[in-house]
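thread: overnight batch results

M.L. [08:02]
morning all. the overnight job finished for the chain we discussed friday. pasting input first so we're all looking at the same thing
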Amino acid sequence: MAVSAEQLAREIESYLADHPNAIVVEGGETIFDFSSARYSLTPEREKCVLQIWSEERNVVRRVIGAELKNGSLRLSVVRFGQAQPARMELCAEAERRAPSTLRVMRANYQRTLHRILERTFPGWTVGKLSTSADLEHSFGAAYTRGVLHRGRSYLAVIGVGAGEAQPTVDAIVSIAVLWLEQCRERLSDRGHVEGAAVFVPAGRSFVPQLRLAHLHPDAAQWHLFATDDASETATRLALADLANLETRLVQCPSREKTLGRFSSSIERIVALAPLAEVVVVSASELSFRLHGLEFARADVTPEPGSFRLSERITFGAAPAEFTLSDSTESFFKELVARLVQAREHRDRLDPLYRMHGERWLESIVKRDVSVLDDRLDSTCVYAQVPAFAARDRAMIDLLGVTREGRLAVIELKADEDVHLPMQGLDYWARVRWHHRRGEFQKHGYFPGRELSPLDPLLIMAAPALHVHPTTDALLRYLSPEIEWKLVGLDERWRDQLRVVFRKKSRK
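M.L. [08:03]
and the structure it wrote out:
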């Protein structure tokens, strides 16, 4: 049965709503990554025209069929000027290597790590290493796990090879703590598991080093090594050597000045979408959102053939994007109406309802952060604060302050995530580093407020039934100098923000 252009467009939209960081594969090559690329869909009569573009390239294809298979959306597409259809795939994961290729790569790394362990720990016995996935205990196949022992002394070992993606490397500390816990339980009758030895590729250790440096020093011995797979050597990294982090804040733009600069764009969008939330992204860019879902942006762009700058409005639920003009205004109105239907009237079947749950939660919490902790001042909260460190970019969900002037790092999750405590720890460490140097007010944050010299609070929040089962175990290993609170929210947080439980550190 023939599929209409509207059905094809809806299927593509739905897939990208569920997988906003999908990649595009054509001819065996990854040609786009939607973390940076944009697209537009134009269903006209019997044609569904898909355009995808980035800074590197631009492609236009006519979509004539779509099939969901093995987690990927396979599109039958026709290039303009050609008669024969070809295949284009939208893939949820950037990892496109065949499972057999990954198994070989990880088996090779397992053998390499075994030799590195023998050289690095003379006098210790290297136990059997494994890369088998153990989803019950949150262990993925990307991590090689094992133990070292000498008499009745043991060390939990975990490593990740150079062939893995950077987010996998960054996440190793959560897995290391859980592996240490399991080793202690399993080997309790044989001896004492003193700590964990963590191995990461050289030059990619910043996030693991930052997180390990802020774990409880008395709970275990923490060892971090940077490995060179080619020479099969490992260099131990000092966890206390974090005094000169290469990290920086971005200047906080003046909200009043930016809103004034874009007054005409704001007036036009609000006239068409009265429920729009206006968010200042930078001094030259605004974001328009509905319950956290961005549907339009305003920025300044050079006029063709001139040095003059003019305002431009683009719209579409990212990564979709169109330029607002007289000819596309009716399309924009249709998008806004559908967005309101999905987000305001809770149409759970619409992909626009499912998009960006964490941003939706963030937009609700930002209105009244005191629901999470009654010490917080709801009149002074910053969302998506960027902090850069070398090649790493972190976006702190919410940065607030208590009425007494103490900073508070707020990390939110709308869905279950094993890494919630370690991500919160990561952002807390960055905020503390900048705070101790007085950099927040220098960069325009908290104007007119006297900030307390105390270290920040760390507040983590998620729907109660979506708090990962390992969260309590991970929190036990945070440094005792961190004052943290875990807040479980009612599952119906979209309707009303209510707290189900609170847990806090024993300060």
